[in-house]
Design goal:
Structural class: mainly beta
Number of strands: 41
CATH topology of the largest domain: Immunoglobulin-like
Distance between the termini: 136 Å
Number of domains: 5
Radius of gyration: 53 Å
Helix content: under 10%
Oligomer: single chain
Length: about 600
């Protein structure tokens, strides 16, 4: 009877414990401590590191030998922690990461019905560096940007939290002249970064900055990362063109021909692009309304636009402007004084007529000595001694001469044989000088072009060519390439290749590209017919009449076994006498 009561008592105990656990799971009906047991451990600790003991959360004097564990937040605690349900000791199952999970919560219930809420906090350590979105960033900043102007930059993100997150930035290198500074704003979870113009920017002094920006966190030692910021200073039109002189002076003869260069003004602009392109012009409202002078807008070369007369005006004052090509251009002014010099009013005049078919200054290289190149007529409106004009010819390397019969008409003629391949142009200068005091002179310089005649045949690189090829080449296969060169130009130097003959009438086996000189097979080859065919290749130019040269091409054909033995006859019949000694030959096949 007592044994039955004892068994019923034990069953009731087990039932009571199950009810306690069930009540805990359903409605927190078990005895629960008022405060949770809070345990802490730093992240990155090795596996099996002890975190704490559940027994520390039981009421004083309560101990247990077994716990039932209930995970309250369903976050995979069983894979990260090792909980000894017998002793209550909690260990790490792996290396914990604060950034992945910073807290674990569960409830432990012992056999006595005591419930302990356990909270494990994973403390952050400084195991992550701030990271910029990119290693390099580009920024364009116009020069003359006001000091204090801000430019938003990419912020560095630190996976750590709190003081271990990004705490600040600094310019590590490249901030020449302290042109910039950094400022930060705390927005949400990030520390936003701005680049602030700290000093006036001048592209003409410095056009680029390469800033090394460093982000740091609050750890000890702190972790850092860097970003390269390439700052390009954009040009604005803040510089006017500057002349190298404020005043220019020149003296010219009243007899200077229109179109002649007088002088050149020069201005520079420190800006870039269109802001630095200088355009020159004469201010017609302030000077030279009759347009005696003209200026090249790009080079600043001032030319004479009309003939001058000393008796009418001795000095011309020009106001020259240089402006840049910006939308709102800057303009600078310089003054040019042109003094007209009085000489004998009339200088000799030269009229040159070239005797070529089209009237241009050229002569054939085939011209014979004595052949005329140009006709020169000379005159001087002056009278008496001033009308006497002496004409001279300079240049031409002795290839040309000058002749006259009446000192009025002069003829330029060929003095020596010409060769275009040696020299194709000659610079000649004809000068006419009168007998005035001081003498006046007129000069004309021109270039005589020597035109080509077909006086050079094509010349092969080699007098003979040799190539070895197999007998089995298919038609169209490459054999070799011959090359010839012609010193002449134009059609006289254009070469056409051809196979003009051979010594054994097998030219039909080969063909040649008339432009490139590439020889290819045109038919099947037969070593047995001709093992070494020889071709005569001719290079002909397109001159009139044409010139040509030839070269021999020897082709060695390599034999292949492409023939069966063949008897000279299909049937042999012979008679022999009896009693012939052994070894007597009676038939040859």
């Amino acid at each position: 009877m007592d044994l039955m009561k004892k068994s019923q008592s034990n069953c009731q105990g087990v039932f009571l414990w199950l009810n306690v656990v069930s009540g805990f799971l359903i409605g927190w009906s078990v005895a629960k401590s008022d405060e949770p047991l809070i345990l802490q451990i730093d992240e990155e600790q090795p596996p099996f590191t002890i975190i704490g003991d559940i027994n520390a959360g039981l009421p004083p004097g309560h101990t247990t030998s077994s716990f039932f564990i209930h995970e309250t937040d369903g976050t995979g605690m069983s894979s990260d922690l090792i909980i000894d349900e017998t002793t209550g000791i909690i260990k790490t199952a792996k290396v914990l990461d604060h950034e992945s999970r910073d807290k674990y919560k569960f409830v432990a219930v012992n056999w006595g019905g005591d419930a302990v809420e356990v909270v494990i906090i994973v403390n952050d350590i400084n195991d992550n560096s701030p990271v910029f979105p990119s290693r390099q960033m580009k920024l364009n900043v116009p020069e003359q940007t006001p000091v204090g102007t801000r430019f938003r930059l990419d912020s560095a993100i630190d996976a750590d939290g709190g003081q271990f997150s990004t705490q600040g930035y600094l310019i590590k290198d490249g901030n020449v002249g302290q042109a910039f500074r950094l400022e930060t704003k705390k927005l949400a979870e990030t520390l936003d970064l701005e680049l602030v113009v700290n000093n006036p920017l001048d592209r003409e002094k410095r056009s680029t900055y390469t800033l090394v920006i460093e982000a740091f966190d609050g750890g000890t030692p702190r972790r850092t990362s860097q970003m390269i910021l390439d700052v390009s200073i954009l040009d604005v039109n803040d510089n006017a063109p500057r002349f190298n002189q404020t005043r220019y002076y020149t003296m010219i003869s009243e007899s200077l021909q229109p179109g002649s260069n007088i002088l050149q003004v020069f201005a520079t602009d420190m800006d870039e692009g269109n802001n630095g392109v200088v355009i020159y012009e004469i201010n017609r409202r302030q000077s030279d309304p009759d347009q005696y002078f003209a200026i090249d807008s790009k080079t600043g070369v001032i030319k004479l636009n009309k003939g001058l007369d000393y008796e009418m005006k001795k000095v011309h004052e020009l106001v020259v402007q240089a402006r840049d090509n910006a939308t709102h251009p800057e303009v600078t002014t310089a003054f040019v004084t042109v003094q007209v010099k009085d000489y004998n009013d009339n200088q000799p005049t030269l009229t040159i007529i070239f005797l070529s078919e089209d009237g241009s200054p050229h002569i054939s290289e085939g011209a014979q000595p004595g052949q005329f190149v140009a006709r020169i007529s000379v005159s001087d409106p002056d009278y008496g001694e001033y009308a006497k004009v002496n004409v001279s010819l300079d240049g031409g390397d002795g290839k040309f001469g000058l002749t006259t019969k009446d000192n009025i008409i002069y003829l330029i003629c060929v003095d020596q044989m010409l060769d275009r391949e040696e020299q194709d142009t000659y610079q000649l200068s004809v000068t006419a000088t009168d007998s005035g005091t001081p003498p006046l002179r007129a000069e004309s310089t021109f270039t005589i072009h020597v035109t080509d005649v077909n006086d050079n045949p094509p010349v092969f690189d080699h007098s003979g060519y040799r190539q070895s090829i197999p007998e089995v080449l298919y038609p169209g296969s490459f054999v070799l390439q011959v090359t010839a060169r012609d010193k002449d130009e134009g059609s006289n130097g254009e070469i056409v290749y051809s196979i003009t003959g051979n010594t054994n009438s097998h030219s039909e086996w080969f063909t040649i590209d008339q432009t490139t000189g590439v020889i290819t097979t045109a038919a099947n080859l037969d070593y047995e017919t001709d093992p070494v065919p020889k071709l005569v290749v001719t290079a002909t130019d397109r001159g009139n009449p044409p010139m040509f040269s030839s070269a021999t091409v020897t082709i060695a054909i390599q034999d292949v076994n492409d023939n069966e033995p063949v008897f000279s006859r299909n049937f042999y019949n012979t008679s022999i006498k009896e009693h012939l000694p052994m070894g007597t030959c009676f038939l040859q096949v």
